[in-house]
Design goal:
Blueprint: H1 25-51, H2 54-62, H3 69-80, E1 106-109, E2 118-126, H4 132-144, E3 149-156, E4 174-181, E5 184-193, E6 200-202, H5 210-216, E7 221-229, H6 235-241, E8 247-251, H7 258-262, H8 283-293, E9 300-302, E10 314-322, H9 343-354, E11 362-367, H10 375-388, E12 391-394, H11 403-409, E13 414-416, E14 419-420, H12 428-445, E15 447-452, H13 456-471, E16 475-477, H14 479-492
Parallel strand pairs: 2-5, 7-8, 7-15, 7-16, 8-10, 10-11, 11-12, 12-13, 14-15
Antiparallel strand pairs: 1-2, 3-4, 4-5, 6-9
Length: 494
Amino acid sequence: MPPLLSTSRKKRTRPSRGRTGRPSGRSWLWRWLLGVALVLVVAGIGMLKWAETRRGQAALLTLGSTKMYSEVQAAVEQALVTVLPELPRGPATRQDAAGCDLTGDCDRPAPELGPGAAIRCRKVAVGGEMTWWALQQQVAEALEQAGARVLWGRRLYPERPGPDQLTPNEKKDLLRLDVGVPGRPTHTLVLYRAGSHPTIRWDGGGALSGWETLASESGPVVALVIDDWGNNTSEPTARILGLDIPLTMSILPGRSFSRHFALMGTALVLPPTATAGGKAATAGDEARALRLAAGCPVEVSLGRKRKAIPVRRREIILHLPMEPQGYPDKDPGPGALMVGMGEQQISDLLDADLRGLPAVAGLNNHMGSAATSDEATMAILMKILKRRGLYFLDSLTTSRSVAYREARKAGVRALRNRTFLDYDLESPVSIRANLQVLVDSARKNGFAVGIGHPHPVTAQVLAEEIPRLKREGVRFVTLSELLALQDAAQEGGR
């Protein structure tokens, strides 16, 4: 007879579970932490492996890991040589940009990009018929493999461009490329056609620019303005134009020879970020600003040595007729600004007067003893000049003029005439004395502005006296250059 089954069985030992049948809270937490740790370990290993790749290093440098600079630079160079086999590899012999040979390569120190970082500045010969644009595209594609890109590209014209310098020439032009990762260039390249022999200067090659030379010189500064251009051509106008000094030519609007003389304007010597009269930046200035914003600081110049500052610089401004005291017996001529004109009338008047002239940087008054004494009229004019970015020279045809004061109040860059050289236009003695007054004022105050006219005696006295004044250290500049020098002096005194 089999044994009777016991009604009480021993219970098997099982893991403790909650009411839902799941593991207890402590056991579940440990399993979750173990899983997270495993994921982190795997991700960390993946990150380390990714950081060893070219793209990973480039991404880390972009994010600010400056330790990656040398690795990224080497990867960029390896990518570049696939398209530019003539690219010199490795560090340059000289590490200091200021000590680079004019025809050689250099490494421009850039400690802000990483410990020991230096942008490699290289010139590279390129053969074949490929256009610069197509070559730039190939460089960009090769750089993608290194996680890098072209940061800046610009065509450079040859050292001695011809009259067609603004027409692209695939055989004569050069191409500048800055490459690296955003905000952190590794190389600045200048590509040129094999067979040519351009001279490249990096960061100026130790030479001063024209502006730096002008700003570094000392001595009294005189800005000589010659009014009333446009009525005719004559022996005096030719003689004045032949003076070996910078001149500001103030041209009457709408006259037979206004445009003839206006086209004689030349390039001026101004700082890279400044422009004539504080107007909007030129295309070259805008390009430089964009390049710097892209993080590409290396300056590139073409030519073996610094070129001398041109002596015969000519700035063009408008000689704006204005209402004089005694009008209409005294007539300022056509295109004149009259007392009581409204804002739209004055704006239209300026449009008409400037229509026949190239872009000008500023203006001064022709006659105008009534207009420049009228506060309301001058306030309207200065509001318009501020909007147009034009400066104003108060000729001071009357001691009651408020033009300079209203210009400064409106935020318009302004200057004042110190003396008219030839109010007694028949007397060489008076003109010579007035010129000396002008120079003495410059010696006392640092600068002075004087106004003359294309009269025979004025031309004669200037031709005789200017060589002596230059030997005595007097510096002649245009009005825009004077304004730039004043700005530089003010900034230096802060």
